[in-house]
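Hi there. Long-time user, first ticket. I'm pasting a complex I've been working with (about 224 residues overall). I'd like to know whether the download I got is complete or cut off, because the file seemed smaller than I expected. Thanks.
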Amino acid sequence: DAMVIQNPRYQVTQFGKPVTLSCSQTLNHNVMYWYQQKSSQAPKLLFHYYDKDFNNEADTPDNFQSRRPNTSFCFLDIRSPGLGDAAMYLCATSRRMTSSYEQYFGPGTRLTVT
Amino acid sequence: KNQVEQSPQSLIILEGKNCTLQCNYTVSPFSNLRWYKQDTGRGPVSLTIMTFSENTKSNGRYTATLDADTKQSSLHITASQLSDSASYICVVTNGNQFYFGTGTSLTVIP
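Hi, the file is complete. Here it is re-exported in full:
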């Protein structure tokens, strides 16, 4: 019963070549988050959507963009990946924005930049 | 500054033994504290969520405690199993924001 699905699980891209990571959910949650997690570090929030409202973290580089065409799907676009963007990218959902609601994480996409 | 610190950074224990992981935070105001288990190459999975008024919460062999006065939490794992090998992440929230610790990497060896 996968609830938060991320595709692909592993992605290799070349330096500077645009890449898109996908997240879908079967929970019908209002909020979808994208996190970047580098090795041995805590996940770092990049941005989130509350329904169609997009909220960018202040320190998220412009190189990272996101789209949410409908409730179920959310995409992370990296326009020109650099070597420093190699990381695990985690998608998460929650019913509401307030932290009293549980966050459900997907399995992540491991991005390698060559 | 809102921070979450976990200790130890890594831990190796023998299968069947107990262990305790620590989480100290400075997040204010406090909304709730969560413990997640993250297997290598996977997303975090929630173990417990505790609010201000909860001192202890259990989930099978996992027991979390919270002292909101000293801003400390611990996660106690009883009778460890090989499958407990993972990173354990403490997350403290203050309403809309989630503050992540860097995790404790636990290795259980036979």
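A couple of notes from our side: The mean pLDDT of chain A is 93. The radius of gyration of chain A is 13 Å.
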